[in-house]
Design a protein that fits this description.
Shape: globular
Order of helices and strands: EEEEHEHEHEHHEEHHEHEH
Oligomer: single chain
Helix content: 25-40%
Strand content: 15-25%
Number of strands: 11
Number of helices: 9
Length: about 280
């Protein structure tokens, strides 16, 4: 059972917005640590971080500030093995992280919140799309800089001939610039990534689910062409390429927040129109 705790988080809050840390168990019994930003609205957006990142990633903090300023409650959390959450970090783990997200969505639904959007950056973008293909219970999914072709981008992190090396030794230790081992990639975890099929996931998302993909034209980690692949396959999809933006939107945080908010607001307009209010 989740345990609300007094927050020691230093994120800046607007007047009328409360903040508390919450522990939510995943299906493996590991406690996931997150922070709820409560605006008084029961409509909740859940934010998901990327590879080797955390709920305190600056992009997530900036999005939290933008969303709460518009009255949207936000929950940002660490996947198992990342940040403050329990568990061991594993390379891959895409579907397992989608299951972590499911535990979070179920928890807040039981607390009488309406989880109306899941938003993920980088690997988190893959996770929210996988979630939508698996569970079909969240109406809005926003993928920020997710990778379509998961067989690419590995050599840059693991080195050349990574498959031969991992077959020979069973693992590859990835070191930082100082030579310290940052994390270990096992053969099983590598195959988890390589067997994660974003094409199959994309075409399995319900047409009723509204999906936004945002990507930077100057993304140095995931090429913008990956975003075009999502646009071709996802049934109810909108694509925004932010000119000049890199993978982390370093100089484009305000533009990113504006794009995300515009998409969420357009959903509210459509809801009102369907109800005959406009």
């Amino acid at each position: 059972m989740a345990q609300p705790l007094p927050s020691d988080d230093k994120a800046e809050e607007l007047p009328g917005i409360s903040q508390q840390r919450v522990l939510i168990p995943n299906k493996h019994g590991e406690k996931l640590v997150g922070v709820l930003h409560e605006t008084g609205s029961k409509k909740l957006a859940i934010l998901c971080h990327g590879f080797r990142a955390s709920k305190d990633d600056q992009t997530l903090l900036n999005l939290t500030a933008a969303l709460t300023s518009q009255g949207i409650s936000v929950f940002r959390f660490d996947f198992a093995g990342n940040g403050e959450s329990e568990g061991v970090f594993e390379y891959g783990n895409y579907r397992r992280e989608a299951d972590d997200l499911h535990a979070v969505v179920l928890y807040w639904s039981k607390q009488k919140y309406e989880v109306n959007a899941i938003i993920g950056h980088s690997k988190g973008g893959n996770v929210v799309l996988l979630y939508a293909s698996m569970y079909h219970d969240v109406p809005i999914v926003i993928n920020l800089s997710g990778r379509f072709a998961l067989d690419r981008g590995i050599e840059g992190r693991l080195g050349k001939e990574f498959m031969q090396r991992i077959k020979k030794d069973g693992f590859i230790d990835v070191k930082d610039k100082t030579g310290k081992v940052g994390f270990r990639v096992t053969e099983d975890s590598l195959m988890d990534r390589l067997s994660t099929d974003m094409h199959a996931a994309s075409i399995s998302i319900d047409k009723a689910c509204r999906v936004l993909t945002v990507h930077g034209s100057e993304d140095e980690i995931v090429p913008a062409e990956d975003a075009l692949e999502f646009a071709k396959l996802i049934p109810n999809h909108k694509l925004r390429i932010i000119e000049g933006a890199n993978h982390c939107y370093t100089a484009h945080q305000e533009v990113l927040a504006s794009v995300v908010l515009d998409f969420l607001k357009s959903d509210q307009v459509e809801d009102a129109s369907a109800a005959g209010d406009i």
